[in-house]
């Protein structure tokens, strides 16, 4: 019997990190899971739940811990998965020496978004800066992007731009497959279940519910004007968090909702592996948009406020 793959997860109490832990625990592949969490989160509901299911808990603050402490926290891990918050993206840079010294065989830096080119999204540029540093340090890596969450349904533009979607609950199912696959080492991967326009997604919900849903559109001007205003505000005050959030949000909407870059074709152009080509039979238990909407209508989930 193959030895279990030892995986550490940073940011395990966030929505993406929690999904990763759940996916690892449910996987047919044997994983030993370590949740690396800030000391302040040791008694959180999520951490207590993980602890009760056999997850090893290690308290470490990636923003402040010394190199020796980080190296000790990462020691023995085969894979380190990062799902930190956007404010901690650049904190990953201070982990790299420890990752290398600890002998981690694969680092999964925090991406978990939509494919785009450098210069298109402020947040993505931070992530690519981390990837550049990973490659300079010759650390084995895999990045995983997941398109747009099935849970969010605000409509940029006219709603006729194709996108890939993935239910946030299924991120971990895909991550478990991808990090155990030697073909994905030192590669970027796009994971998704569906390819659809937002209008088609709403049409599907209408079909399943028998009702007409309210559709909330954001015009091009309503996306790009605040985007440019946020850039101006950040030039005046780089610490303006309201402007930073507005910039990040509207750049996302512009990229996938207007430019149409959240597609398998564009991802492949950027050098990504396509999850459907890696796993033609799909990933067990993953929810399509149809299944996700059916769960909402059956009362098993709460609907999103953007879809009424």
From TrEMBL:
Gene3D superfamilies: NAD(P)-binding Rossmann-like Domain, UDP-galactose 4-epimerase, domain 1. It holds the Pfam family NmrA. Residues 6-225 form the NmrA-like domain. This is Putative isoflavone reductase family protein.
């Amino acid at each position: 019997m193959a030895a279990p793959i030892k995986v550490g997860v940073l940011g395990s109490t966030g929505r993406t990190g929690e999904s990763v832990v759940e996916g690892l625990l449910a996987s047919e592949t044997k994983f030993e899971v370590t949740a690396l969490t800030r000391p302040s989160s040791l008694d959180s509901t999520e951490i207590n739940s993980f602890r009760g299911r056999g997850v090893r808990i290690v308290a470490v603050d990636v923003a402040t811990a010394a190199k020796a402490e980080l190296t000790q926290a990462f020691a023995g891990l085969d894979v380190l998965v990062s799902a930190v918050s956007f404010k901690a993206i650049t904190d990953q840079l201070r982990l790299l020496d420890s990752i290398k010294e600890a002998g981690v065989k694969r680092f999964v830096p925090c991406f978990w978004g939509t494919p785009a080119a450098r210069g298109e999204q402020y947040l993505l540029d931070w992530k690519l800066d981390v990837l550049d540093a990973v490659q300079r340090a010759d650390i084995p890596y895999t990045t995983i992007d997941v398109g747009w969450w099935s849970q969010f349904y605000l409509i940029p533009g006219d709603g006729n731009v194709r996108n890939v979607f993935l239910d946030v609950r299924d991120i971990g199912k895909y991550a478990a497959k991808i990090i155990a696959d030697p073909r994905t080492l030192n590669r970027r991967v796009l994971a998704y279940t569906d390819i659809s326009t937002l209008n088609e997604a709403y049409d599907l919900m209408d079909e399943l519910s028998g009702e007409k849903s309210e559709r909330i559109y954001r015009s091009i001007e309503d996306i790009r004007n605040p985007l440019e205003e946020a850039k101006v505000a950040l030039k005046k005050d780089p610490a303006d968090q309201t402007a930073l959030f507005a910039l990040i949000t509207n750049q996302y909407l512009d990229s996938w909702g207007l430019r149409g870059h959240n597609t398998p074709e564009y991802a492949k152009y950027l050098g990504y592996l396509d999850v459907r080509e890696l796993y033609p039979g799909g990933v067990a238990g993953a929810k399509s948009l149809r299944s996700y909407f059916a769960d909402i209508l059956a009362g098993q989930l709460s609907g999103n406020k953007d879809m009424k």
